[in-house]
C-alpha cells in the first residue's frame, strides 16, 4: 500500500524505509523533498536480505550488528538446497488459479525445505494457470498462505476435487507473518516447512 506521505511526515521520522515498488518510489521522492531521509529496499528473495541488513546498519549506525545478521542471511541464501523429496504447489488465488513460480521467495523456501515447486519452470514470481494444469502437474501438497487452521474455501468446490492433493486434504497452511516475505526469520520458515512436509 502506498504510504500517506503527510501522515508519515507528521511523525517527524529520522528515516523512512520503503519496499521498492512503483507507488513507494513516488512517496520516497516526496519525503526526500520534505527533507526526510528515505531508503527503498528490494526484499524479494533470500539474496536480498544481506544487502538490506547492511544498508540499514549503515543508515542507523549499527554496522556491526547488521554485518552479523547479514552474514547469517548470506549463508542462508548461499546454502545448496537438499534433494527434493516431495512436490508442492503454492496457490495464492483460486479463481482463476494463480500460483508461485521460480522467481519467488516461496519457491526458494520450498527448495531449501527439500520440496520441488511443480511450477518451478515458470520464471515469474507468480502466474495464472488453468486448473487442468495443476491437475496435470499433480503436486503432493498445496501450500496456501493462511493464518487459519481451516483448509481454504476452494477445497470444497467440486472442480478443485480433480486435484489429488485437494481430495486427500494435503494442505500446508503457512502463516503469512512467517512465510509472507523474506526476513530475519527466513531460517525459521524453512525449518517449519521442512517439519510440516515430513509429517
Quick tags:
199 residues, 9 helices, two-stranded parallel sheet, 2 domains, 6-stranded mixed beta sheet, 41% helix, alpha/beta, Rossmann fold, 19% strand
Give a quick summary of the entry.
With 199 residues, the protein is α/β, with parallel strands linked by helices.
User: How many helix segments?
Assistant: 9
Q: What separation lies between the terminal Cα atoms?
A: 37 Å
CATH topology value of the largest domain: Rossmann fold
What is the rounded Rg? 19 Å
How would a textbook summarize the main sheet? Answer: 6 strands, mixed
What is the top-level CATH class of the largest domain?
A: Alpha Beta
**CATH-assigned homologous superfamily of the largest domain:** Nitrogenase molybdenum iron protein domain
Oligomeric state of the chains in view: single chain
**Domain count:** 2
Structural class: alpha/beta
H and E order: HEHEHHEEHEEHEHEHH
Inertia-based shape:
globular
The count of strands amounts to: 8
CATH architecture of the largest domain: 3-Layer(aba) Sandwich
What is the typical, i.e. mean, pLDDT? Answer: 94
- The residue ranges in which pLDDT falls below 50 over 5 or more consecutive positions are none
Helix-residue proportion: 40-55%
Approximately what portion of the residues adopt beta-strand conformation? Answer: 15-25%
